[in-house]
Amino acid sequence: MVRCFQVNADQTLAPAQQFRDGFYVYLSDGRCAFDNERHILYWYPSNDDPNATHDIRIRPSYPDYGDTDWNYFFQGDEVVEGRQ
């Protein structure tokens, strides 16, 4: 089981031992960045509507099997942007 821990509303701790081969991030809106040294994923939602629902999903690396819905792939200090 993969465990991530919420640090703040826009910060999630992504422990390195859980994501040795990198991880995919799916966002409902906005952008994100990953601090590999501190293992913190920063999320900057773009929809500022007070009634907006924001979703984020993180999954470990494995073959895509045609999955093209991810927004980011992080592995160490490298980042690949997917669907925007």
Descriptive tags:
mainly beta, globular, 84 residues, 4-stranded antiparallel sheet
Envelope shape: globular
Q: Catalogue the unreliable spans.
A: none
Number of structural units classed as domains: 1
Main beta sheet? 4 strands, antiparallel
**Beta-strand proportion:** 35-45%
Distance, first to last CA: 28 Å
Short summary of the structure?
This protein has 84 residues and is an all-beta fold.
Describe the protein's architecture and organization.
The protein is mainly beta and 84 residues long. It has one domain. The protein is 0% helix and 42% strand. The chain is built from no helices and eight strands. The strands form two sheets. The protein has a four-stranded antiparallel β-sheet with strand order 1-2-5-4, with no helix packed on it. Strands 6-3-7-8 form a four-stranded antiparallel β-sheet, with no helix packed on it. The protein is globular, with a radius of gyration of 13 Å. It starts with a strand and ends with a strand.
Topology:
Blueprint (H helix, E strand, L loop, with lengths): L4 E4 L2 E3 L9 E5 L3 E5 L4 E5 L11 E5 L11 E4 L2 E4 L3
Antiparallel strand pairs: 1-2, 2-5, 3-6, 3-7, 4-5, 7-8
